[in-house]
Amino acid sequence: MKNTTILDPEITQQLSDLVDSVLNRLPLKANDASAIRAITLDLATLRGGAEILGFDELVAQILEMDKVLLEYSQAGIDSEHASAALSNCVMSTLQLLNLSPNRAKILTPAAANTALVSVPPSVLSAPPAAKKSEPIAAKVDSTHKTEDKENDTIRVNVALLSNLMNLVGELVLTKNQLQQASHLSSSDELTRGNQRLGVITAELQSEVMRTRMQPIGNALAKFQRLVRDTAKELGKSIELILEGTDTELDRTLVEAVKDPLTHIVRNALDHGLETPAERQSSGKNETGRIKIQSSQENGQVIIEVSDDGRGLSVDRIRAKVLEKSLVSPEQLSGLSDREIQSFIFLPGFSTAASVSNLSGRGVGMDVVKTNIERIGGTIELSSRLGFGTSIKLKIPLTLAILPALIVSNRGQKFAVPQSKLVELLRLEPNDARSPSIEILQGTPVYRLRGNILPLINFQDILNPSSKESNLSGEAQNIVVVNSNGTLFGLIVDRIEDTADIVVKALPEFLRGIRIFSGAAILGDGAIALTVDINGLCEKTGLNQTVANPVAASAKSPKAVEIEYLGVDIGARGQCIIPLCLISRLEEFETKDFRWSGERKFVLYRGETLPLIDVRKVLDIPSSLTREVPAGKDKQTVVVVRLAEANYGLEVDAIVDLFVSAADLDVKMKDRPGIMGTLVDKDDVMILLDAFEIISVYLGGRNKAETVEVNRAKSSSKGRLLIVDDGNFFRKHVEFMLTKMGWEVETANNGDLAMKVLASSSIRSFTAIVSDLEMPTMDGFSFAQNVRKAKGWSDIPMLAMTSSYSDPVVARALESGFDQLLPKDQLDSIETLITNVIRMRKESAHAA
Amino acid sequence: MQPNRNQSVQYSLFKISGRTFAVEVNRVQEVVRHMPLTLLPLAPECVEGMINLRGQIATAISLPKLLKLSGLDTSEQLNVICKSDDCLLSFLVDEIGDVEEYSQSDLEATPLTLDLSIRRFMKGVIKNEKLLVSVLDVDLIIQHLNKAA
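ok -> structure tokens follow
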């Protein structure tokens, strides 16, 4: 009976109750008007239910019965024939419901027999109905044969089953106690009895477990209708194939997988499968297929939902990840396709281009994942672009039983769910081969194969008041667990054993503790609290990296690192200069210094290199500076190139190279020549504004020749819009271009830049220079928006990026940029700007 | 439905540090002797731990701590197991008394002079010839615990 529709058991029950009620009134007595009325009413209800459920066949069947009744009451046909026709219809209704009559015995044998004989066509005036009856009548026969077996089921309250399970659990515990006691006794009789008891209780336990099992088909029944209706709505042709619907799992789990599965199927319907036209053009069968396969494997139920649709586009996910700044482009490039696909399980992540009433709103896959994990299951996704997507759910057979690792702390036992377990480490105190626990800023960490693994001392969590450190001396046991991608180690006193535990919920007022998800009774009667790894993670603040499923050690999103040169200028604090501004580091003999009035310079590569005393420019009081050793014969100089000329900044010493992703804080800017401060973790660094220092130096010498005036002279170069979210970088580019004679406007991100454009008159900008990685609106979407904007669609656009690679270039060009500049080649920025302006002009001419 | 003034209710009596308390007997599942306690780290102070009651887990609440009677001499050796919607609570008490039947009219409102820390859990006071019995309301206790959590 492959094509039998499976119904929700409650609905079938209601329907079959109605059918029973009709059957009860058969055979009809002559002229029994009240019976007819009652049957008509029942049929109406039945039809209503069938219509709602979309059982067209059933509705037709009921309409037929209605007709028979009507004819009977109006024309007064022979009551026996009418009864026969009715029972025939009822039987086929039952057949549709895949049931057998519970009260078949109520039918008199004669009536039942007549029911099986095909109805004389004369009774049913409508020929199609008569045609239908015959094959069904044949089927009814087979139903009768299996009737005995199907009648074997009874309905039992679930609470009763739960009680039974509890009692069996108790029985097992008592048996264990008895067995322990019997070891002390020498009675063979007792030992034998105990062994038998053990076998029987184990059998009893497994049988009781089975009573709660339901076929997964119960949850899948509604999908046929969902698929059919949705496909119709979307104008797609989709076939749903169910396999292994008789796979059994705990009824609470059947309920629990319903919603996640619905979501997955909807996703497949809406986004996964293409329209018939699209499918045809890509050489696929017009009818898309969604297959739900269920099977049992190693104590788990595996439900695999696969479709043969378009599959997930790794590129689109990648773009989305960058757009949302979930990881830096460098990190992203190191990820496998599969890892990238797993991003769709993050909250708010949707690659769907459009949102529909079905799916694509970006809430979903994360909820699916959470729900599946809540019941101890796992979810896996694999997809091939163009070939389809497959999502595999692995669900434990029963919710009640949780495989766990039992650990103990100060003699008390705790259970850690196996599903969260990664590995167990044992650190011997004097083992030179393995590193020991290290203390980082007062917090224990461990180097696990080179990566830093944060450690949580379970004792500290359980007993926050007593900060006794037990981390030295003895051997340590570390349970490495994984909470939604965050790895951490839990230091426990002892690792006891693994056990299948039956978890019981904690009362409401204890749920606030968060680090325990329940309690279980162990084989020896002790109670073990189950550790909620995710809760523990939240409690300790480790979940802050949860948004990143890739690696626990991943840095904060959007980490564009800039290199700085640390210099000592004799002032307090560490001064730094961005490395990208520096062309060379030199050391000059003091005897080579030349003077032109008050201006100190050296001859350097055939030209004059002005030497600027940074300390003087910054106006640092001499009390703060150190004495320059007398007779110092060498001067360290940082050579900075600005507007085709070199300038030398005198510094006391070069300290080191610093790499930081920190952004500029301008609050500490107290004088010209200092751009602000960078705070990177615990280090505060003063960022020197090399250009301003030069400008002050020039201005101090001769006001008429300040750069500002220089710019005014040649200001006709054009007006640029610079878009970058990095304060430093934007300022820097702005300064450079201003110096070169451009007029510059700036914006922090694409969104703000769009606003600037909207409020400016058309063609008031010559070109746009934009960063690619920005919050709110990134460079890609910005370029797309500009190209769509009225009046700006042909403006020359140059992109800047710190992650210059072929795919990025391709994407940038596709988004509407004309050219791409790696951020570390800023000196060629002007060349590129003129380049893109020329390109646009040429293409305009060509058009 | 308004309870009949003459309708009688059965109460289970128990003692903590010489003071007599009672709860309605239909809320009491059973009374058991001292059971080993499993500690519940980070739980509210009045939660002493959990006990394994033949395969079911009951949360043990120290009534002296809940009622802020600490400082009094208590032994808390006995468990009065009470049913609630979703859990079993075990109230640790010193001594178990009889089950006694009183009519509704015997239950008087709690005098407002009583300390709020006790009064807020009380349904009222029962007076018999010899003594006054403080009747505790299990639901009020659960409500309080849930709110505090």
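The longest helix of chain A spans residues 158-184.
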